[in-house]
Amino acid sequence: MTMTPGQFGEQIAATSQTLGSATGRVYGVNNSTWALLATVHILWVTTATAGTRIPVLRVLDAASNILWEGPITAGPGASVNPARVSFGAGVPLITSTPYFVGPLPVRMILPPFASVQILDAAAIDNADTIQPNIVYSM
Fold this sequence. Notes:
Blueprint: E1 10-13, E2 17-18, E3 25-28, E4 35-45, E5 55-60, E6 66-71, E7 83-89, E8 94-96, E9 99-104, E10 108-110, E11 115-120, E12 129-137
Parallel strand pairs: 7-9
Antiparallel strand pairs: 1-12, 2-12, 3-11, 4-7, 4-10, 4-12, 5-6, 5-11, 8-9
């Protein structure tokens, strides 16, 4: 994990992990002050031989309340490896293999000690692996 407080473009570059369960993975931003979420890019490797994933990004507060949730309703299928799933401020929804892009609200504010949750709403295979890169500024 790489974080450089006080500069624009802090990031959390997580290692590759399986989704693990229907609730996916949660990544703490560890921001001690209010922050602005810029983008989340996920390298997504599918393992099941069938089914279309529905990638969902959730922004959670310190108490794990959902502040925002956004799905990409036509995500990567089984034959797309690796898929590139991204969420960015103000971008349009794009579902063109292997790139899947979902919009974040412009100026998505993160309260202190927020976290980001990544999951597959279709729950195709918990053995899929994800490797997120979360970029924000404080």
